[in-house]
Amino acid sequence: MEIDRADVIAWQLHPAGVIVRTLDDGAAVFHQGSGDVYVLSRLHGEVLEHLAAGRGDFRALLQFFDLDTEPSGPEDLRCKIQEALYQVMSTLESMQLVGRVA
Amino acid sequence: MPLPDALDSGKGLLVSGVLNPEALGALSPGQWDVLIRQARLSRLLGRLAMRFNECGLLASVPVGPRQHLEWAIARVNTQTEELRWELSCIEEALAGLDVPVILLKGAAYHVADLAFARGRLFGDIDIMVAPESLPRVEAALMLKGWANSHHDAYDQRYYREWMHELPPMQHIRRGTTLDVHHSILPPTARLKTRPGLLMDAAVTIEGCFFKVLAPEDRVLHSATHLFFSEGEMAGGLRDLLDLDGMVRGFSGGEDWQRLLRRAAETGLERPLFMALHYLDHLVGTPVPGDVLDQVRHHYPAGLAGAVLDWGMQVSLAPSDTLDRGVLQRLSEWLLIVRGHWQKMPLHLLMMHLGRKALVRQS
Amino acid sequence: MDGVGDIPARDFRALVADAGVIIRFGRFAFRLRSPVEHLADEVHRMYRYHPVSLEGFADFHVEVRPPRTLRRWFGKQLEFHVDGSSSFFPLPHAQAFPLLEWGLNWCVHDAVKDCLILHAAVVEKDGKALLIPAPPGSGKSTLVAGLVHQGWRLLSDELAPLALDGLSVEGLARPISLKNDSIDLIKGLVGEDAFSETVRDTVKGSVALMRPPRESVLSVRRPATPAAVIFPKFTRGARPVSQGLGQGAGFALLMESAFNFSVLRRRGFEALADLVARCECYEIGYGSLDEGMQLVEDIHAAA
């Protein structure tokens, strides 16, 4: 599975620009290139805002969102958290809001 | 230079407004009403609005018509952003093929940043590729979500056998339409050209994946499209003013001589002479005297020329309603039959018109 | 400028049939031409207080007339034309007035690019406006007619032009479109005189239009500040409920009802985000007009 290699992946915002408006129950997002608008979860919005500052490595994203559990923690929980973040990134990718850094 | 038409005639209003808005002076509410509607129906509202804006005249327009000009500017800005995205998607689909891709018409004028294209509103994007790379281009586009919009087997065959373009492709997600050409005239047209000549001369634009036709070839293509393609004269005045903008960009006799030589080389003298005839007659575009002498020499003489003139003038004149009178419908019919006749041998034309009539009835 | 009602009905009919009349609603004006006499009569009654002129600039040139093709022989039908072209299906002769109203809605949301056009009603009281977006069948117009009867100012029944700074909403003060059972319900409150003929068997069932009150028409150029957004849902026999919606849910619902959202791109996006940041969004359910109006009053008082 691709997530096994997630450690070496880094993402960045689409170069056309992404505007995020944080809402009380989510985030409204505007893709300045495609003109598409999405209403996403708070986590999606925060990831996008984090990426606005520059590239985001998978490991760094996990740490930034306090999702990087201790290695001593239960292995399956750690996997689930990684998978969840990977899902978030995949969703953002499919919307072309973010792309992988080559 | 002074414009040929009196300002009180509708045509004068629109052409003057687009070419030289400073000369318009104060208009009555009724004149504004006619001007805005004519501009919208002739697809020139965006261009009119941008001209007013560039000349700093927008603020002096009364609030009623000014709203329409401002809305048109908003539409132009949206179109610019949408075009940028659409082109980036086409580039992404085709960049790996390593074939030259040439933008035509509206999108080309836009990326070449031609002055007259500011505010020009258009619908679809047109690209041209060499006939031999057509299958690869079509496949690459389909891989990225463009699909054939004509499912009817007859339509597919019609396009593929008799036309100079693929059936229009539509993006399944965005709904945008893309026309993929391999020539500027159908292979069956009486007027012949060698598209390879145009493709070889296409020019690159700094920092742009797409190429555009050389300046003379842009004139020839636009003239051919306007006078030698299927009817579609609703945008006739808009296209004529495109041509005006292109030839006004010529700096001297050498440019004109190059244009005439190129027309002879490519076999596109007839559309060029027609274009120059109407630019001179209807728009008042400055065309050198010796060039006009050649135009007069080539323009159809006698009755044929007179009928053509009448049909063209009715079709190219701006209208403030799409509710066409009998006169205009008759002349459009004349042009559509002429358009088809230019493109197809007679037996094919009969087949095609017969089928179109049947489809309409069912 | 004279009001439509200042012109005698017979003269009005003749003018509409001939060169047309220009009727102003808010900052827009349409020139109406039509040979259909009962349409002219309905417009004369329903737009009684709207300013009218015979010359000048009009934003939309509209015509309601029989088709010129062979179709005219297949039963009496009418087409709505803008600038001489028709992109609507023709409708039966009796539906002339609803056809005009639907056509005008289309004209406004197709043309306007300097505000976000929401499919929503707007009413105002004490300087606080409520936006009431809703899909057809939700009971929006009935609620609006009831509120207007209670003295609320009508800004619009169908289209809410929201300024791109999200701070104000404009008025159009055009007739309110009522359907089916609500026609008699509201007639019972405001009387027959304010109503057009009821047109049966339209795609929306029976339709009748209600004339906007004179005060609403005269103050139409005064914009209002949106204070809350209410998504109503009338269900016969249902108990009244009111609940706040999250901003994201409100944003998503409003986005669905914004006609020119995609063409405005970033500006439309920001306007909607500003709106939900400033205004609470509510969902209300109710089983009677009185209950619905009470819920609206409560939200208005709290806003």
Please describe what this structure looks like:
- The complex is a heterotrimer of chains A (102), B (362) and C (303).
- Chain A contains three helices and six strands.
- Chain A is an alpha+beta fold.
- In chain A, strand 3 and strand 4 form a beta hairpin.
- The radius of gyration of chain A is 14 Å and the shape is globular.
- The model of chain A has no long low-confidence stretch (mean pLDDT 86).
- Chain B is an alpha/beta fold and 362 residues long.
- The relative contact order of chain C is 0.13.
- The mean pLDDT of chain C is 93.
- Classes of the chains: A alpha+beta (102), B alpha/beta (362), C alpha+beta (303).
- Chains in contact: A-B, A-C, B-C.
- The interface between B and C is medium-sized, with 26 and 20 residues.
Sheet/helix structural class of chain B? alpha/beta
Q: Estimate the helix proportion of chain B, in percent.
A: 55-70%
Uncertain parts of chain C: none
- In percent, how much strand structure appears in the residues of chain C? 25-35%
Q: What's the total helix number of chain B?
A: 16
Along the chain, the helix and strand elements of chain B come as: HHHHEHEHEHEEHEEHHHHHHHH
**What kind of sheet is the major sheet of chain B?**
7 strands, mixed
Rg of chain C computed from alpha carbons, rounded to a whole number of angstroms: 19 Å
Give a count of the beta strands of chain B, DSSP E runs of length 2 or more. 7
What is the count of helical runs of chain C? Answer: 10
Low-confidence stretches of chain B: 1-10, 357-362
Secondary structure class of chain C reads alpha+beta
Q: In order across it, which strands form the biggest sheet of chain B?
A: 3-4-5-2-1-7-6
Oligomer: heterotrimer
Computed Rg of chain B? 21 Å
Ends apart, CA distance between termini of chain C: 37 Å
Task: Report strand % of chain B.
Answer: 5-15%
Distance between the termini of chain B: 53 Å
Mean pLDDT of chain C: 93
Q: What is the 3D form of chain C?
A: globular
Largest sheet of chain C: 7 strands, mixed
